[in-house]
Automatic annotation (TrEMBL):
Keyword Protein biosynthesis: no
Localization of this protein: Endoplasmic reticulum lumen
Main location: endoplasmic reticulum
Recorded GO MF terms: oxidoreductase activity
Organism this protein belongs to: Capsaspora owczarzaki (strain ATCC 30864)
Keywords: Endoplasmic reticulum, Selenocysteine, Signal
Protein name per Swiss-Prot or TrEMBL: Selenoprotein F
Length: 164
């Protein structure tokens, strides 16, 4: 139950920021391109669950943004679709060893389990929080997921699904 209220708090914060951006931009003149959707404050990670996030706008008295939200979420693939489409590209984990004490599950996965995923690359970058990054066959980034809160088993299961 705490996770659900945390998720709603995060959604409220994201939607509040989006509302401020939407007031600054003219929603009626925006197209549904990815860049204009991002300009309005909508990101693919917010809209990745079959546009269900848009339905929550009414709950937070942000119904005036619903049409833009629906237009934007329909113009972008879900996060899972982008990860799956990256199978022909590459998937790697970006992590900084300086953060390993804060993310023991990620450290354990990288040091003990990553070898079981020969297509997975681990990139060590100074100061970054743990992220799963997918690129297409042209090397362009198609998705980025923060994974710091993921448990080791969840990460293994997710990557097994992606690479199967």
């Amino acid at each position: 139950m705490h996770i659900r209220s945390f998720a709603l708090s995060v959604l409220l914060l994201a939607l509040t920021i989006a509302a401020e951006r939407a007031n600054a931009a003219s929603p009626s003149s925006s197209s549904s391109s990815s860049s204009s959707c991002r300009d309005l404050g909508f990101s693919s990670s917010l809209l990745a669950s079959s546009c269900s996030s848009c339905d929550n706008l009414d709950t937070f008295s942000l119904g005036f943004m619903k049409s833009d939200c629906l237009r934007c979420c329909q113009s972008e693939m879900s996060s899972e679709e982008r990860i799956m489409s990256a199978k022909s590209g590459r998937i790697h984990i970006e992590v900084c060893q300086c953060n390993w004490a804060r993310y023991p599950d990620i450290k354990d996965f990288i040091t003990q389990d990553a070898v079981n995923f020969p297509k997975l690359e681990v990139q060590y970058k100074s100061g970054v929080l743990p992220q799963l990054v997918a690129t297409n066959s042209a090397g362009q980034e198609v998705d980025r997921k923060p994974i710091g809160a993921w448990k080791r088993d969840v990460l293994k299961e997710y990557l097994t699904t992606v690479f199967s």
